[in-house]
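Whiteboard transcription, Tuesday session. T.W. wrote the C-alpha cells on the left side:
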C-alpha cells in the first residue's frame, strides 16, 4: 500500500492532481485545496481498495490522514465524504465540533444532520486525542508550551480549547509559562470547564 509520496505536481483537475514521482504519475484525490502546477510537495497517502477500484487520497499532514482514516471507519461515511470534511473544514473545526457535540458544524455536501450526529457519537467514543492539529512554530520553546497545556488541563480546560487560544495570543519570545498561562486564562475564562 502507498502511504507517502513526494514529487512535483504535473497537473491539477477538479479536487485531484497528478503527482510525478521519479517519472511515474500518481493521481491523488485531494479535495478542496490550493496547489500549483510545478510545485514540489509531499503527501501522506491513504490507498483505498474496493473490488476493482483503487484510489489514492492525499493529505498535507499525518494528522489529516489519521482523521480521514477514523472517519471512513464509521459505517455510512465513505472516502468522498471523509475527504470533504477534512479538506473543507480542516482538523481544528472537526475536533471542535466533536468536543462541542455540534453536528451543524460538520455540514459539508454529502453530510446531513444524522450523519454528522453519528460522526460525533462515534468519534467521541474513541480516543481521538492522538489526532491533534499541529500548533506550528511559536516564539517560545516547546517545553514551555507543554508545561502550559498540562497546567491548564489540570484546571479542567480541554486541550483543544487551550491550543486554539495559544494560536491567537501575541506571544513574545521572552515569555515564561506563567506569562502565557495568565494571558490564556483571560481568554479561556468564558469557556466551559470540564468537571465544573
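and on the right, the sequence the group agreed on:
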Amino acid at each position: 500500500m502507498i502511504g507517502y509520496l513526494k514529487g512535483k505536481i504535473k497537473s491539477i483537475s477538479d479536487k485531484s492532481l497528478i503527482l510525478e514521482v521519479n517519472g511515474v504519475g500518481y493521481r491523488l484525490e485531494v479535495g478542496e485545496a490550493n496547489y500549483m502546477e510545478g510545485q514540489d510537495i509531499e503527501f501522506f497517502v491513504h490507498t483505498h481498495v474496493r473490488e476493482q477500484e483503487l484510489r489514492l487520497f492525499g493529505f498535507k499532514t499525518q494528522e489529516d490522514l489519521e482523521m480521514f482514516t477514523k472517519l471512513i471507519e464509521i459505517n455510512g461515511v465513505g472516502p468522498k465524504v471523509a475527504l470533504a470534511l477534512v479538506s473543507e473544514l480542516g482538523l481544528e473545526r472537526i475536533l471542535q465540533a466533536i468536543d462541542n457535540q455540534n453536528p451543524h458544524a460538520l455540514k459539508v455536501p454529502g453530510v446531513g444532520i444524522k450523519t454528522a450526529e453519528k460522526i460525533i457519537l462515534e468519534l467521541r467514543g474513541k480516543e481521538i486525542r492522538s489526532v491533534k492539529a499541529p500548533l506550528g512554530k511559536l516564539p517560545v520553546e516547546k517545553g514551555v508550551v507543554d508545561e502550559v497545556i498540562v497546567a491548564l488541563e489540570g484546571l479542567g480546560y480541554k486541550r483543544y480549547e487551550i491550543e486554539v487560544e495559544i494560536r491567537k495570543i501575541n506571544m513574545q519570545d521572552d515569555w515564561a509559562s506563567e506569562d502565557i498561562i495568565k494571558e490564556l486564562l483571560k481568554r479561556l475564562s468564558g469557556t466551559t470547564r470540564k468537571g465544573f
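Someone added at the bottom: The chain has a mean pLDDT of 84.
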